[in-house]
Design a protein that fits this description.
Order of helices and strands: EEEEEEEEEHE
Number of helices: 1
Radius of gyration: 13 Å
Helix content: under 10%
Strand order of the largest sheet: 2-10-9-4-5-6
Number of strands: 10
Largest sheet: 6 strands, mixed
Length: about 120
């Protein structure tokens, strides 16, 4: 019912920054909590950060203090500002609704983030 498209990934040096975007297809986006996830080669997908419809945020310990999740409901878009990037941040990053993920929802194409040492 709602299509999510990630963009903004790329190749950066350790210590660099990237800003990821997640564009939703409809205005219904504004009513739901959203989240960023990532999956590195050979590892399971993990939750990176969440944001409620009102803007409250939560971060995984591994990214706390370095990443910032935000959303612009008027634009049906969510963002992930990533600073002080480390090689261990290398992964494909996905956006999704946490409630849908818990219920086995589908995933989009994601966007690749590669951090060189």
């Amino acid at each position: 019912q709602v299509q999510l498209v990630e963009s903004g990934g790329g190749l950066v040096q350790s210590g660099g920054s990237l800003r990821l975007s997640c564009a939703a297809s409809t205005s219904i986006f504004r009513f739901y909590a959203m989240a960023w996830y990532r999956q590195a080669p050979g590892k399971q997908r993990e939750l990176v950060a969440t944001i409620t419809s009102s803007g409250s945020t939560m971060y995984a310990d591994s990214v706390k203090g370095r990443f910032t999740i935000s959303r612009d409901n008027a634009k049906n878009t969510m963002y992930l500002q990533m600073n002080s990037l480390k090689p261990e941040d290398t992964a494909v990053y996905y956006c999704n609704r946490p409630d849908m993920v818990v219920n086995g929802g589908s995933w989009g194409q994601g966007t690749q983030v590669t951090v060189s040492s």
